[in-house]
Specification:
alpha+beta; 5-stranded mixed sheet; 7 strands; 23% helix
């Protein structure tokens, strides 16, 4: 992943108060991530950046839609995303070098003057995706699965040869 400058926050010059930032996430954003499950999207991220002495509180509000495929019939669907995530960023030179045990707390070195939140935005969007992506959840378009595709899939499943050992086990009932 190549870091994009648009997602770098220069916090060194910011005053200790709440700052509001907005990011528009589209298809180009996800091309920077290898093997991304998201190919098309139209998402807005509203970030509340609360700078405090010795730490930051970042509140991410994600709102938009992802265009994907139905898990059942492969129709193109528009999946709504709405989520909120919070992360605390603290300064500690020793802990900045070690892997973090708590995913909601991140440690930075006291020598840092900026932070790139591109990876955080990506992870929060992916985590906000529903486990089942089906036509009934689509925002626009047909909210029923493609019946001809479902019939074709059932026909293909029935045509698969059954292992003869399983047939012998069925006779044991």
């Amino acid at each position: 992943m190549k870091a994009m400058k648009a997602y770098t926050i220069q916090f060194a010059g910011l005053t200790n108060k709440i700052h509001y930032l907005e990011f528009e996430i589209d298809t180009l954003f996800f091309k920077h991530f290898e093997s991304s499950p998201i190919k098309q999207a139209d998402i807005f991220v509203h970030l509340t950046f609360d700078k405090r002495p010795g730490m930051f509180v970042l509140d991410f509000n994600i709102d938009g839609e992802v265009i994907g495929e139905c898990d059942r019939c492969l129709n193109k669907i528009h999946i709504p995303l709405r989520a909120q995530h919070r992360i605390l960023i603290k300064f500690n030179d020793e802990l900045a070098e070690k892997p973090q045990a708590d995913p909601d707390i991140m440690y930075l070195s006291t020598k840092e003057h900026s932070i790139n939140i591109q990876q955080l935005i990506y992870e929060y969007i992916v985590l906000s995706m529903p486990i089942k992506k089906i036509c009934e959840n689509s925002l626009i378009g047909n909210t029923e699965c493609n019946k001809s595709m479902l019939k074709a899939m059932k026909r293909d499943i029935k045509q698969e040869a059954i292992d003869p050992r399983w047939e012998q086990l069925k006779k044991l009932k």
